[in-house]
Amino acid sequence: MEYDPIKKSLGGVFNRTPGYRKIFYFLLDILLLRTWHIKKVLRRYSKEKKQADILDAGSGFGQYSYFFSRKYPHWKVQAVDIKTEQIEDCRIFFDKIKSKNVNFEYADLTKFVRGNAFDIVLSVDVMEHIEEDVQVFKNFYQSMKKGGMLIISTPSDQGGSGVHEHHKHNEYENNGSASFIDEHVRDGYNIDEIQEKLKLAGFSKTDAKYTYGWPGNFSWNLSMKYPIMMLNKSKIFYVILPFYYILTYWFALLMNVLDVNIKHKTGTGLLVKAWK
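The structure corresponding to this sequence follows.
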């Protein structure tokens, strides 16, 4: 299943005006469960820090940088991404809304280092795309201030990349199930493996927990996977999609609430924190 083309297509629709793009960010916030988990961590952190320097490492559409810029206007955000078109796209939007505390810049995370510059490094849906992950962790470590926190959201090895479906169905089989694994360089992190790699990079303390347990996985299938599968089949589903969400949204929302507030023994996602 092609994931990035759908994201680009939806981004193009919502990028026509700043108002549309804000709606797009709002929809990402309520539909993407990983955002719920990340914001929960940031709410706790913000009670302790009134000012902070942030690295949005792999900023993508810029939704997290937008969240920082609006929720914490006294924080300074450096957003970087390897896709130049997304960096330019974000620059245009943030200029239009007159945002003063976010800067966008092209960067390869395997080479990007800013010595002792950041209180928080945020990496969402990035590390599963990078082969040289330990090098990136070392760069994060060097770029952070002492006491700084790294927050990573990434698929786990419990099926977070769709790898189990990939092997079972060989990408496309009779029931149309498919995998997002084509866009990932690894099948998801083992919860111990990623913490060991972070310690190799220099981090003194780590904490990892599973996300996307049974409620989150159900919500993901209902609110993201099935709609993307439909959009891959035909553009007519762009018309049908609003009606689909009217029927399914509230149940997916309930599942998200449960996922954020339940401790999971296993899950298809990982939320990892590490401190310098």
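The domain at 4-275 is CATH 3.40.50.150 (Rossmann fold).
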